Request: fold
Amino acid sequence: MHILSVVGARPQFVKLAPVHRELSPYHQHQILHTGQHYDYEMSQAFFEDLGIPDPDVNLEIGSGLHGAMTGRMLTGIEERLMVDRPDMVLVYGDTNSTLAAALAAAKLHIPIAHVEAGLRSYNRNMPEEINRVLTDHVSDLLFCPSQHSSDILSGEGVREGVHVTGDVMVQALLELEPRLGKERLQRFDVSRGEYVLVTAHRQENVDDPIRLRGIVDALSSLDGTVVFPVHPRTRAMLERIGMLDRLEGRADVRLVKPLDFITFTALERYARVVLTDSGGVQKEAYTFQVPCVTMRNETEWTETVDEGWNVLVGTDTDAIVAAVSNASPGRTEARSYGGLDVTGIMRRIIESRLG
Ligand code: UDP
Reply:
């Protein structure tokens, strides 16, 4: 069978890696990269580290306003689909690349499988929430990371083609675990259980100077060392509001470029606390059983909160500082999102669907 995966952003490359490994021995699996993320550290480095072949097509769309970006992707993907006519299109997560591919395929009546279906924050101010809802409602196969996400779809009347498969990112992480030795911490001059790992890139946090200031003030007041790989969007905004120098001037805050996946996940594994506004990072901290503090008011990964591994604090400085200092392990084995055969389950479902 001819299956086309459409990806464009960092978290999608992580999800693509185990899917490609699973599908390529059995099927013609092609990769279309929209070019949404284009910096070496945000794109090519993931393909190299995770052993993903170069994309068959790169649309090189780059960044821009949501409408313009999604529109250019839609045009480019449609053109490719009309030429290649794959049997199925695989889309991942909740980015503009996900939505553009889903729309293009739906209009051409090409079956769509959505990897990471049924997630909801119930916050329509997040561009990702719009992308998720629309993608789920045009997909033919919906691969849910947990029973909860399947129940959400059922509540929205989406019941056909819904399967609880577990989460591919968790599989990617568990596969990598043997390569995540403590020696990877050396270059940051930190030791296991003694530092806070930070990421921040959500549009509603970093594009709002008040919320971003709340985060920067918190980072400056945390006890112990902070390791902060700075997303390009966040770096640009910190520079614009004159706060980059302030963080760079602190010896206990290690500001670094976005890290390769193996180094970053090793840092997650050995952190005392992970402080983030990322979806994927919340789930990865949970999988490693590292307490997480999330700088948002809601999460799609509700199991992480229900099981005591994650707390939601928004961007208020005092709330962040208190939560990081009080963070403690949750109550469970943190296994709500499946294990090592997530992609095998997906492949068998795809095969029985396309028959
Ligand atoms: N990540 C990485 N290097 C970094 C920061 C994050 O490899 O410096 C990985 C992280 O492990 C996770 C993914 O990028 O798998 C999350 O991407 P991001 O936070 O950009 O997206 P989200 O999950 O919020 O959609």
Notes: The mean pLDDT is 96. The radius of gyration is 20 Å.
